Amino acid sequence: MKKLLGIMMLGTMLSTGSVHAAPIRLKDLVEFDGVRTNDLVGYGLVVGLNGTGDGLRNSPFTEEIMVNILERLGVNVTGEQFRPKNVAAVFVTGSLPPFARAGSPIDVTVSAIGDASSLLGGTLIMTPLNAADGEIYAVAQGTIIAGGVSAEGAAAAVTQGVPTSGSIPSGATVEREVAFDFAELTSLRLALRTPDFTTAGRIEAAINHSFGRHVATMLDAGTVHLNIGETHMPSPAHALGRIENIMVEPERRARVVVDQRSGTIVMGEDVRISRVAVSQGNLTLRIQEAPLVSQPNPFSPGETVVVPRTAVGIEDEPGIGLAEVRGGTSLSEVIAGLNALGVAPRDMIDILKSIKASGALHAEFIVR
Fold first, then answer.
1. Which SS3 state, helix, strand or coil, does residue 199 take?
2. In this structure, how many other beta carbons lie within 10 angstroms of the beta carbon of residue 144?
3. According to DSSP H, which parts of the chain are helical?
């Protein structure tokens, strides 16, 4: 009922009139060429677990890294047999933000790769983080904040969330900076997050209007070229600082997104439906087994017999009759009409899929 009311309210708001998209800051519409993050990954060891670590017989790589760490610390364990239960091998991942400087902290995520049941309360030992070029750019260490909890007894266990994965806020320190001389750039490309020719043209016009000269050129639907030299700004950073807050009204494609699992329907204001007729109904078949056991009288020479009894019925639930939708109708008006008839969200999704298949729904239809 809440979903129907929510869709009805959305349909009412969109059907009251054409609402233009609100202007958005340029920094929220594009990515600046060269201003990007870099993924980091490392392989390390978590200690201090309460008996929830790797079983070393099933995870020999855990024993190997533990031996390497102890030997680096001056502890000779060659030939020793030990089976601790409070250590676990993990992958450590993080992202190096743009313009990160040596000494800057970054967040990291820790995930178990062996058969450890939980990382709750563990501490990550110093782990180097490598980028795609194989160089070490950060070092991680710290106490893990696990994302779940687990408990077990002699005959039962319960797990909530994912206790084998956790995070360490500001758990890594940048040790190497990415070699990129941003101040020497003479031109820059703006990459649209959602490529569109109309939006790219509006970005070009807004930037040129801001500087009062032709400094931006649209190359294609997803790229706008910025000539930094023509901006007469002291540096590329000053130029981007000026243009990133320019307000631009983006153009959006007509799109309908439905989630069949939750019955959610999201639609754009520009969705239109051509003239089409719709009829919908539900047919339900019910079969119920109620066998009857017939037993003979005590001490009689009879046998127990199971007599099958089956109840079969067909229910034709009331749906919507043949209804005609006039051409040019917005989808919000159709949704409001279906809500008024009491159509469930999942039936509404089936109707929209059928309208799309007939070619009457003029929008990109996405099913998740």
1. helix
2. 23
3. 2-15, 60-72, 197-211, 236-243, 331-340, 345-357
Confidence of residue 335 (pLDDT cuts 50, 70, 90): confident
pLDDT digits (tens, 9 = 90+) for 94-105: 999 988 899 999
- Residues in CB range of 163: below 8 A, 6 or more apart: 52, 117, 118, 119, 120, 146, 147, 148, 149, 150
Q: What is the dihedral of CA 54, 60, 62, 63, to 10 degrees?
A: 110
Number of neighbouring beta carbons within 10 Å of residue 7? 23
Structure tokens at 60: 């020999």
Residue-range domain boundaries for the chain: 38-149+159-174, 181-248, 255-295+327-367
254/365 Cα distance (integer angstroms)? 9
129 and 138 Cβ atoms separated by less than 8 Å: yes
pLDDT tens digits along 111-142: 999 888 888 889 999 999 999 999 999 999 99
